[in-house]
Amino acid sequence: MIAGRPIAFQGENGRTFDNRDTPKITTIAVNFLTNSEQLEALLPERFELTGTPIVTVFASYMTEIEWLAGRGYNILGVSFPVTFKGERDHVRGSFLTVLWENLADPIITGREELGYAKIYCELPEPTVLRGERHCIASWLGFKFLDMTVKNLRQQSPEEIAAFERSQTGDGVLHYKYIPKTGEWGSADVAYATLTPAASPNRVIKERWVGEGRVQFHKARWEDMPTQFTIVNTFYDLEIKEYRGASMMKTVGAKDLSDQRILR
Amino acid sequence: MIAGRPIAFQGENGRTFDNRDTPKITTIAVNFLTNSEQLEALLPERFELTGTPIVTVFASYMTEIEWLAGRGYNILGVSFPVTFKGERDHVRGSFLTVLWENLADPIITGREELGYAKIYCELPEPTVLRGERHCIASWLGFKFLDMTVKNLRQQSPEEIAAFERSQTGDGVLHYKYIPKTGEWGSADVAYATLTPAASPNRVIKERWVGEGRVQFHKARWEDMPTQFTIVNTFYDLEIKEYRGASMMKTVGAKDLSDQRILR
Amino acid sequence: MIAGRPIAFQGENGRTFDNRDTPKITTIAVNFLTNSEQLEALLPERFELTGTPIVTVFASYMTEIEWLAGRGYNILGVSFPVTFKGERDHVRGSFLTVLWENLADPIITGREELGYAKIYCELPEPTVLRGERHCIASWLGFKFLDMTVKNLRQQSPEEIAAFERSQTGDGVLHYKYIPKTGEWGSADVAYATLTPAASPNRVIKERWVGEGRVQFHKARWEDMPTQFTIVNTFYDLEIKEYRGASMMKTVGAKDLSDQRILR
Amino acid sequence: MIAGRPIAFQGENGRTFDNRDTPKITTIAVNFLTNSEQLEALLPERFELTGTPIVTVFASYMTEIEWLAGRGYNILGVSFPVTFKGERDHVRGSFLTVLWENLADPIITGREELGYAKIYCELPEPTVLRGERHCIASWLGFKFLDMTVKNLRQQSPEEIAAFERSQTGDGVLHYKYIPKTGEWGSADVAYATLTPAASPNRVIKERWVGEGRVQFHKARWEDMPTQFTIVNTFYDLEIKEYRGASMMKTVGAKDLSDQRILR
Questions:
Q1: A133, A142, A146: best to mutate for the C interface, most C CBs within 10 A
Q2: For residue A1, pLDDT beyond 80
Q3: Of all residues in chain D, what percent are helix, strand and coil, respectively (each to 5)?
């Protein structure tokens, strides 16, 4: 079946996409050092924090997406380095604790096909003022994030190549959970998934490094009744020290058909 | 676990809602006679078309929803009468082929907890002009539905009571489907679910009957790449004859914890 | 000429509207006592503060507007009692310092035909939770107002009639200002206007009184570059004491063709 | 006074903007040959159609706008070549019959300070699919324009220089009209204005030429009650032959303080 399409409307499209010169993606990311204890509290079973407890908050602004007939959408994620130690699989990578997106269609398929922890928020284009880029995120009028990067210095092709070589993890880790209808508390689906690191079509066109700041805003239940616990978890994360920020422009992607269950 | 909340952010809220005087819902519905064959093509296994092939297109505009801290959202559904003949369960009701909603948060939980075939679209408030109410639905700027009701006549309390007695089905039927990650074509979840008809807190405050018209607009893949097959299925449905339209105002709801799997 | 329509596209519509059973308007208002000095600083020439310096912040949620073919839109205003002492006219009423609206079309005609100080913001429907109604206003993601009313008590027909008799001013006062192109600092138009109080078609259907709170949020230039001085003026207004809040449902309006220049 | 800011909130900002490396603008334009008679019907007094009756429909997507603290917005205009023969001024340029914008703040100041015939619509980013760029425009859910460009060929620096030399008009012409309040049918302001062609900070970074198509969609009064006559005027314009299309990326702008009245 085609995920995210009600059963009444299946039937093949027969479309394939090459994802070669598109999509175009600009990603802004800020890293900070925090407490191991606070991150460990977020881990599912069989996940362990790996190395220095550095959190990455990133926002990607995507255009020319072929499977959306050339439209774009934006995403905002929070991740940190982990190891998954399963019965079969032993992988190291980034645990994507949550991924906000500003369009429901990829949220549905991303959650159900791939196991991404996608939820919704508003993600307008970043503002750019005298060299400072400012990303915001809000939910029905409540702004829960300000993230800025500035003093960006463009990297040389050699520096970009070195950056690519430094990306050595196995990929991005997720935890797919679908409750069992009517048997509240038990699950239809509960497993970790992996987005393997390889993305042969993706090319980094430009990359900058600089300084960044992240500020989550404390939400009351009334402000974000479905998401306040998530936002407040990040609000409560201690920022011991910023560890760099970046902006990167890439083209190309993969269709994620290599997404797989970790056991 | 709390559905729709990433695993990293579980932890109880301890909130309960009584759903007694809220939400407030205005529902506009139009019915038409179509071909049995066209509806049968939409049925999952073990579902059968029941009685006259009458399709109902309905839009509900909801406010004062307690679990959204008093916000509202809108929905648009298409259903027709079916019987589910399972190994254990034998139920009669409406098959909700698709339910569009204009807010992602209830789409996620509705799909994953309850098995509703929810997807996203824009659903602005209906316009009201000289007695005609006009509902529209669009997706990223492509309007795929115009639905109007007019010549509405308000019903007496006796007529409303008679209408309520005439609602004899077992409830609303759904088909929950979640693909298995990485094993494309096979399923993690594939079962029918039932929303039982009983909704003790719901009270019909006012109801009108009149004339209505429904027009789905043919979409190209480029117009609605994730949903064009759905919209075009309805565009292709023959409208042999309209079979009445209504507007209804209700207060109260249930928390849907009685949703159950059909076997 | 038809205001707000470019000169290239004039030509009569021939439409008239009776504004009798529509629009339907729900207005939430909160009053507070402040400093005379702070209000006097906001007054144009020939305007004087009258009586007790009580500011009213009101939000109206309008549906079934005939000239918008049955659509609705929402407004948010701030006013206080003044007297205009012109050469010819001597009128007493409310000075509408600013009127935010969430639709550009009536902003344009309201400014240019009528002299209203209309500007744009987002004005979602108020939330309603356990008897508390909560209005918010934002501009491109920056929320600049929270206003709540609660403990509302519905008034009797006699109380509503008494309320109507107590409304004795001449109407709502505005200041229309249009700069002269290219002669920066001088004006094409600079005069006060009056919306006379009479609105024969308007009927109060229901009214409640209760308690309210208003909170404007301090904006940086970066948050609201076109409006931060406005929002900060209200943020700085001392709230000495709240002086009641109300909610009111009305039907009917007037076409404002009685709007006139004050001299 | 500062235009578009209510009189109660004047007071200087003291901000100046250099508009040198920003804004960044991508403009897509399609030209077509039509009937002289149809264009002449759109001309105000003292305007004459000049040369071949070629209409340009253009959409600009702007980011990093300094006076909006780094935000962006989008515009859609329709223009054709004219001569203005006033008592004093005799200028040749493009008459901008209407300019849609998707943000109210610049609409207000553009109309009142500058005399631009700005009105509101929704203008999402164009989609880009296999080399075809597709612009749409809608108003509260009614899509009134599809415009596409394809087979784009990038121009050399020499071709761009030649293009710049070919732009010989005096600028863009407008007609500013503000009705007199209460004296319906007479005007406070009625004069032509000019945006002089010179824009020293603007640099064309890249330019492409190719094929384009424009389709306005017929609107009923119910679809666009404030704008249907405008859209239908363009819908009715005969497209005798397309005369090229282009895409252009520019940086830099001017503050429009050279805007002046034509007499």
A1: A142
A2: no
A3: 15, 50, 35
Mean pLDDT value of segment D80-101:
98
Q: Per the CB < 8 Å rule, is A128 touching D69?
A: no
Give the integer Cα–Cα distance in Å for C79 and D220: 38
> Which of A81, A46, A78 has the alpha carbon at shortest distance from A175?
A46
Query: What is the residue type of A93?
Result: G
CA dist A17 → A150, B240, D151 (Å): 36, 39, 20
Residues 133-192 of D with CB under 8 A from C: 140, 175-185, 187-189, 191
**Per-residue model confidence as pLDDT tens digits over D58-90:** 999 999 999 999 999 999 999 999 999 999 999
| β-strand partners of C209 | C153, C246
Shortest Cα distance, chain C CAs vs residue A114, angstroms? 31
Q: What SS3 string covers C149-160?
A: EEEEEECCHHHH
Going by their DSSP bridges, the two strands A90-101 and A71-85 should be labelled as antiparallel
Look at strands D171-179 and D90-101 and give their pairing: parallel
| C-alpha dihedral sign at A32, A36, A38, A42 | positive
Predicted confidence (pLDDT) at residue D18 exceeds the cutoff of 80: no
B147 contacts B59 by C-beta, under 8 angstroms? yes
Q: How far is CA C115 from CA A169, C43, C98, C118, C178, in A?
A: 63, 15, 11, 8, 9
Instruction: For residue D219, give the amino acid letter.
Output: A
Instruction: Give yes or no for a contact between B169 and B92, defined as CB atoms under 8 angstroms apart.
Output: yes
Q: Which two tokens stand for residue C198?
A: 């009479």
Q: What's the rounded Cα separation, in Å, for the pair C186 and C175?
A: 15
- The per-residue pLDDT for range B235-259, each reduced to its tens digit, is 999 999 999 999 999 999 998 999 9
| Interface pTM, i.e. ipTM | 0.95
DSSP C186-203: -EEEEEEEEEES--TT-E
**pLDDT digit string (tens) for A113-139?**
999 999 999 999 999 999 999 999 999
Q: How far is B98 from chain D (nearest CA, A)?
A: 21
Query: Per-residue confidence at B10, pLDDT binned at 50, 70, 90?
Result: confident
Q: Which of C137, C128, C252, C125 has its CA nearest to residue C200? A: C252
What does the pLDDT look like over A48-59, one tens digit per residue? 999 999 999 999
Whether A72 and A48 have beta carbons less than 8 Å apart is answered as: no
SS3 label, residue D105: helix
d(CA D100, CA D117): 8
Chain B, window 196-225: residues with a beta carbon less than 8 angstroms from a chain A beta carbon: 221-223, 225
pLDDT in tens, B19-31: 788 999 999 999 9
A23-58 burial string, b = 16+ CB within 10 Å, else e? bbbbbbbbbbebeeebbeebbbebbebbeebbbbbb
Question: Which residue in D244, D240, D239, D241 sits closest to D211, CA to CA?
Answer: D244
Percent helix, strand, coil in chain A, to 5, is: 15, 50, 35
How far apart are the C-alpha atoms of B120 and B106, rounded to whole Å?
10
| C-alpha A216: how far from chain center | 16
**A5 and B225 Cβ atoms separated by less than 8 Å:** no
Closest CA of chain B from A24, distance in Å: 19
Report the alpha-carbon distance of residue D34 to residue D234 in Å, rounded.
Answer: 11
Poorest-pLDDT segment among A120-124, C216-220, D9-13: D9-13
The beta-carbon neighbor of C182 closest among D175, D221, D259 is: D259
C157's CB contacts (< 8 A; 6+ apart) are none
Give the mean pLDDT of D13-33.
Answer: 88
